[in-house]
Write a structure and sequence with these properties.
Blueprint: H1 3-16, H2 32-63, E1 67-71, E2 77-80, H3 82-87, H4 100-104, H5 111-121, E3 125-132, E4 138-148, E5 157-164, H6 166-215, H7 219-246, H8 249-254, H9 256-266, E6 274-279, H10 288-307, E7 313-321, E8 324-331, H11 346-355, E9 360-366, E10 370-378
Parallel strand pairs: 6-7
Antiparallel strand pairs: 1-2, 1-5, 3-4, 4-5, 7-8, 8-10, 9-10
Length: about 375
């Protein structure tokens, strides 16, 4: 065999095992064999360049602190860096083939919507979410999603980086918790002042009017005073309802479920909708913070269901299991589009209260078919159990 052909065979064997440093010399003949050698040398340079780029990418891929996932356009994980497998407690290589949605669960409504938004905007999409470890531990993350393509011949992929923002969310939750507690303290003070002063004064005036009616001889004057007395009774009732809304004494005395039942009776809501309130298990003793937050969320849900959703049926269920409390709120109203921006602060305020207890809010709604809100709050290592 020609020595040059043997050299070609040897260098191709080296290329096969990833050694691309050596080149073959071109003879003075400049014949067809030399043309082949020149082509092989060029191929070696290209392979070496690709390998260096790949190794450089892989080094960066595994050295960053953030979790990084390469997913296809269906949201299936093609590759994941070492921090992703380490932080999520998976074996190396075991994340490949999993759906990213399975890791995010309900914290992102549907990752397909994120991919659709990415195709429309053609820029980086940033969202907050929750990613779950193999043990079910929740990690708050900042997600950055963008298109990724290594070469023209490869299919379009998506790169998703997930930064652990646990410390940031902890600080935010402490601030939110302090604000909520301050608001509730002010509501409690205002309710007490209204009850102890204005309501008592109105009750005193009502007593005097009632006494005067009994002494009046003129029927016309009696009628006028009776009308004033009726209006005063309505004002006292409204004032008591306002005090109950600001700070329901039933909540402090008898707990969450009875307070919710009383709320549904107090404000004439039974005339607008039929309520079904269920308690599937005995609730543990809850801290005042959890009780008042769940109560406010239920207030907000009922108000929205009646005012905006025009619901005629509202179901509220309470369930406790495995150191969790779950409240499910359902109506048969108009519903809304989950991914459509909404005016107002209602749902955002609900989410803030839930986040302050490291809980989750799952929303399901469809136009014409009503809404379902599911609130889950852990009762350990939290503000939960008093």
């Amino acid at each position: 065999m020609d020595k040059r052909l043997q050299a070609i065979n040897d260098i191709l064997s080296e290329y096969a095992v990833g050694k691309f440093d050596r080149k073959l010399k071109i003879s003075p003949r400049r014949d067809e064999t030399d043309a082949i050698i020149n082509g092989i040398n060029m191929m070696g340079e290209e392979l070496r360049s690709i390998t260096i780029s790949r190794d450089y990418f892989n080094n960066i891929f595994d050295s960053v602190n953030d979790m990084v996932f390469i997913v296809n356009t269906n949201g299936i994980i093609v590759d994941a860096n070492q921090p992703a497998t380490t932080q999520l407690k998976y074996e190396p290589g075991s994340l490949q083939g999993k759906s990213l949605q399975d890791l995010l669960k309900s914290s992102i409504d549907d990752f397909r919507y994120v991919l659709k938004e990415l195709k429309t905007k053609q820029s980086i999409i940033s969202k907050e979410g929750i990613i779950y470890t193999s043990k079910g531990v929740r990690i708050p993350v900042q997600l950055n999603v963008s298109f990724f393509k290594r070469s023209r011949s490869e299919k379009q992929l998506v790169i998703v980086s997930a930064s652990d923002i646990t410390s940031q969310k902890h600080t935010e939750n402490l601030v939110v918790r302090a604000m909520i507690d301050a608001q509730e303290k002010e509501r409690r003070r205002l309710a007490k002042d209204l009850h102890d002063s204005l309501t008592q004064q109105l009750s005193g005036i009502k007593f005097h009017i009632s006494s005067t009616i009994a002494l009046m001889q003129d029927p016309e004057q009696q009628t006028i005073l009776q009308q004033a007395n009726t209006a005063l009774m309505a004002a006292i009732k409204d004032m008591r309802n306002l005090c109950f809304s600001l700070m329901p004494t039933m909540l402090e005395e008898f707990g969450l479920v009875k307070a919710v039942r009383e709320f549904c009776k107090q404000f004439g809501y039974r005339e607008q909708a039929r309520f079904l309130i269920q308690q599937n298990s005995r609730l543990p003793e809850l801290s005042p913070a959890v009780e008042i937050d769940l109560y406010r969320i239920i207030q907000e849900f009922i108000s929205n269901a009646l005012l905006h959703g025009k619901a005629s049926k509202i179901a509220i269920s309470f369930h406790s299991y495995q150191q969790l409390i779950r409240v499910r709120l359902k109506d048969n109203g108009k519903g809304f589009r989950i991914n459509q921006p909404r005016k107002g602060m209602g749902i955002q305020n609900m989410q803030s209260r839930i986040n302050s207890h490291k809980g989750t809010l799952n929303l399901k709604s469809e136009l014409g078919k009503g809404s379902v809100f599911t609130i889950t709050i852990p009762l350990i290592n939290n503000y939960g159990i008093s």
